[in-house]
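Homework help thread (please don't just give me the answer)

Our assignment gives two proteins as sequence + structure token strings and asks us to describe the second one. The first is just a warm-up. Here they are:
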Amino acid sequence: MYKQHYVKITGILFILAMLLVACGQTPASTSQPSADGDSSTESATKTVESASGSKEIPAHPERIVSINMEDILLSLEVPLVLATPIGRQDYLNEQLEAQGVAVEPINESVNFEAVVSANPDLIIANASLDAKILEQLEKIAPTITYDRRNWQESIVQVANALDIEERAEQLLQKNKDQVTEAQKLAADITKTKPTAAFLRLEEKDMRLFFSSIPSTPFPASSYVGAGYEVGFTPDALVTKLEAENPDRMNASISVELLPEIKADYLFIVSISSDGSAEALQKTKDELNEIQQLQVWKSLPAVQNGHVYVLNAKKWLIDGPIAESLKRNEMLEVLGLPAP
């Protein structure tokens, strides 16, 4: 009898002990408040600020989808599962695919099926996207947005949201170092502070790019800002049109306005943003036609042989990788070695 009671009591104690052990194994993702109200473990989510407002996102996202923010996110080495560059802006595609990131270009709209199939726990999107697109993305996963145009500000904001601030600081410092190095390499050309203008030729239009967008906090926030950072001074016409259009990055100009471009150096951005060899050739064909005009022949840059064609694939985009590629191409067309 005593032995039977002993066995029963021992069995009950064993079960109670197992229950206590099980209760003590709280999942790490669940916050357990202590007696004084503090959390003993990290929360599974956090609240962050983005261009689209305050959002609740995973504290440690493992599957991130990029909507036209590839340059920034790839640079920050976040866990990307899907990238959606606009059109044929494919300068990062090989690098993305090499890292196992699916690439689904945005043509007329975002491929929502591809986003769903990627099973994201977080979506990071370009703030310039249409509100209806952002609304659809929110239905798939928490979505935060940032201004890709001001990549230097946005890269810090993204890093803060993902708790990787040090990576952003390193990338910004790397960018500064690259600018300094490019300036040293171009010093013999830029020591006299030559003026420059960046012109994009289109089928029925010419666009003069500004050195910056005055309404934004960063002076090199224009697509061609990296070119001016090398050490060129904006042409007087560029400065004038820039002041008159503080919210824009370029202005449409006519052939009649060409004589006002007094720049020492003239850079032609290829006609198509895909930056293909065909687009570059088309730009050269357009340029050949314009070169026959007397008004063109009278330009200082033309008379001095300082007209250069650039590949728009890298120039009509933003981010630390693109900025580095732009500077390298600037040095290349000027006959200087890349750093």
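The one we have to describe:
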Amino acid sequence: MDRLERLFDGEGRWISWRNIAGFWWLGLCNNFAYVVMLSAAHDILKQQETNGTEPTAAHSYHLDRGNSSSSSYDCNPVSTAAVLLADILPTLLIKAVAPFFIHQLPYGFRVLMCIATATASFLLVSFSSSVAMSILGVVFASISSGLGELSFLSLTVFFPRFVLGGWGSGTGGAGVAGALLYAAFTQAGLSPRETLLVMLVVPIIMAASYYLLLVFPASFPQWHCVVEEGRTPNTDQERRPLVSGEENEEIRDGEAPAEDSRGPLTYKDRLAILRGLLRFIIPLGVVYFAEYFINQGLLELLYFPGFSLSHAEQYRWYQTVYQIGVFVSRSSLFCVKIRGVWLMSVLQCINALLLFFAVYYHILSNAILVFVIVAYEGLLGGAAYVNTFHFISKETGDREREFAMAAASVGDSFGIALSAALSFPVHNYFCSL
């Protein structure tokens, strides 16, 4: 804490706060469209289906299920993982392949692409006249979020490491702000399409945060490609190789550490760094796999008829409480740092097993218990995210840090995609009981 206070009490205090605020707004704006599309796209698709004169197969199935007593669960015809899968697959693809070539695109151009695709997502879903057009809008939101996350995480290497706290808190705030603002606007009488048009202000805020609020170093490559040779961003911190201490397989006897190397990273270098990142990527992926399996595969099946909230309201508040937990823990990097992401992955899997058995055996008697578990789930997930990238930044050499920050971002998206795929058969299984 003393070190952080010195950073803010010195001559650069104003610049430090501007950069923290800039990354906070970038985090919020980057994840905002992703969060909103999980709700808004479903609303608009439902509106398009009900506008038809003939009931669709999904509606017929829903009517059949609603009139049947063969299932003990109050089921939707399609799992809520359907929209999640459309919202995560483009992001996963971008995070998996872009780190190997994205350094050839200047940061200024990347941010313009994020702004353009986020704007296109809101417009496409707002004015969609078909299911395909709505899905295309969701895909654009996913592209914007994926490209933005790996770009802004890489961007943090040009700033003091404490800006990661601002980024993490902003991404956590996106979940709360997206869910609450969408609900508030629609509750106030705006249609989903009108609400999305209002939210076109979000890409504008992203542009202002990046181009006006951040204070870039004089040597920052805004409109030209990054020159990796001899570059030493983030020079206020001690730097170590990616795999340090006795685990460092890249440093042999008599060899210099990676940051003393010169020249751009080769494809072989990037694969070697990626192998070293697996100890961060795997536990982060496990945390998010368990987390989103709960959110999209189980929570819609945890309905308590005797509670004061309806099924839809219970599910909505489950998601809101979860997002609040994520926001709190993603904002915790300024106060506490947790090295054991593996422990968080184990605890999150225990949460998933507990709620799975709660769905199967009905062992929970009240929705309040689910709210407590879901809040704890959000705390674990948010803490795993910010601590993973904090320690990657801390334990990575200068030459490899920018690539490492971008490449590691694939972990959470891979876990989310796997959980979405698993949620479909789990949903169908329980609804067939």
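TA reply:
I won't write it for you, but here's a hint about the kind of observation we're looking for: The mean pLDDT is 82.
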